[in-house]
Structure formats: structure tokens, C-alpha cells
Amino acid sequence: MTVVELLPDVLAPLGLDRRVLAAVKRGLTGAGVRIATGVSATGQKEAGGSVEVTLSDGSVLAADRVLVAVGRRPQSADLGLDRAGLAPDPRGAIPVSATGETETPGVFAIGDVTPGPMLAHKASADGLVTAHAMAGQHHATTPHEIIPQVVFTDPEIASVGLSEAAARAAGHNVLVGRFAYAGLGKALGMRESEGFFQVVASAVDHRLLGAVIVGAEASDLLGEAVVAVRNGLTLEQVAETVHAHPTLPEGFHEACESALGRSIHTARR
Question: Which residue in 4, 87, 197, 241 has its CB near the most CB atoms, within 10 A?
Fold first, then answer.
């Protein structure tokens, strides 16, 4: 299998740290997947029961099947927005307020047709906020940057909030803690020792700004991190909460301990 990516790296739009991308690429190459970045497919033709795909660098790939997945855009062109006094942005998204109300009072929009991550759980959250607003009630909103996202690769990638690079770019002085799956007895027993937990926190007040988990069951493990980031918990609040042993969630606890410089289960080199 060959993955052809126009951008300089895989998963570039997600803003993941290089350490995360490196782990995913190791997993893909270990599974026999070739990754071609910085190139695009310029043509294809049938050739003896297979397909020959020509790339922008002049190389040719032979394949049994070709899957095209080049992103998504809001499908707003045929909704009659002009009749409601609305105009989409250049990408086709409909601008809305925090409660989902458009520039036309009484007209609301939610989900993939609005700005923000195009994720089912984001759309569901939008719907709840908007339904409450239409009923004259309040429902807390969630900023786009703390909407959790998961990439179901092998290993899985699950993240919420700011990455280390994004936090620094935003002007934060940060503390970063990491803990490897290889340090978890449960992970070793599962034969899933590849991967790590990473947390990013403010060096000023130790509040968690973001977290990423790369490894087995990362999508399920992210829940605790989402609650912590959404509610501004500190490294100490997580680190001083006893986690059951042996379990995978211990990794999040240990990453917080690591950020505080007091992890006792991390190998020192």
C-alpha cells in the first residue's frame, strides 16, 4: 500500500507534534505502508487488470485499487442561503455565533456546514447548544480548540487542546510531560508497548492546556484528558488522584507527574 500526500507531511492539518507523527509513520512503515509526501496524483490508466497512477514527480505506481480522499468542504451551495440573507465564507461555511445563530436573526446552523472541525461529536454538541438557545435556555459551549479528535490509525492518535508547538506559538511558557506505554504493566500484558502519553500545561499555574495519546485504545483513554483540559485542571490535581493499577489510564497520571519532574516510574538517562 502507498499513501500519496500532497502536503509536506502526513496528517499536517491536525497540527500534531513531530514526535506524534514519527510514531505513526513508524507504525505505518512497519506494516508495509509506503508514504510519499510532497507529491500529488496527476493521472491514472488501466493496465492489465491493475491501475497505473502517475505522480507529480514523474514516478508511476501500480495498484489494484485507488482510493481518493482529498478532504471535505461544506455543501452549502444549493441551500438557498441568499434567500435567507446569508452568504457563506470562501470555504462554503456559514458564519455563526457561539449559539449557532447566523447573521439573520432566528436562523441557525450547526455541524459541518459551519466553521470548525468537521466531526460528528462537534456537530452533536452544536445541536445541543442551538436547541437550548432556540428554547431561550443556556447551554455551555466548547471552544473549537478543545474539541477532541481521534485518528484511527495503528497506533491510534487521540488529542485534545493545544499541542506543545501550538502552545508555545500562542505565547505560553509550558511544562511538558511524557510517559511511554512500555512503562505500563497493563500495556506489556496486552503486548501493546508502542506509544506514549503527553501532556502540555502552563508553567505559570500548571493548568492543563492539551494532551495527546498515541497507542492502543487511545480513543478510549482520551476521556480523562478531555475532562481535565475542558475544566482547567492542574497537573497536581491529576497527579494526586490515585489511578487503579495495572491499567492504561495510569499513563496519563504518570505524564502529569513527569511534567512536574517527579515521576518515579520513568527511566532516567
Answer: 197
The DSSP letter of residue 8 is: S
The DSSP output letter for 255 is H
The total of other beta-carbon atoms located within 10 Å of residue 204's CB is 10
Q: Which amino acid is at 84?
A: A
Decide: 70 and 41 in contact? Cβ < 8 Å: no
Indicate if 129 and 152 belong to the same structural domain.
no
Cross-strand partners of 230:
none
In a domain, 249, yes or no: yes
Strand 195-202 with 208-215, pairing? antiparallel
Q: State the catalytic residue, choosing from 121, 243, 245, 265.
A: 245
Per the structure, the complete domain to which residue 109 belongs is given by 81-134
Note the pLDDT of residue 268.
Answer: 53
CB 98 within 8 A of CB 109: no
- Give backbone dihedrals phi and psi of 55, rounded to 5 degrees, phi first: -100, 165
As given in the structure block, the three cell numbers for residue 137 are: 435556555
Q: Is 245 a catalytic residue?
A: yes
Q: Give the pLDDT confidence of 157-190 residue by residue, as tens digits.
A: 999 999 999 999 999 999 999 999 999 999 999 9
Would you say the pTM of this structure is higher than 0.90?
no
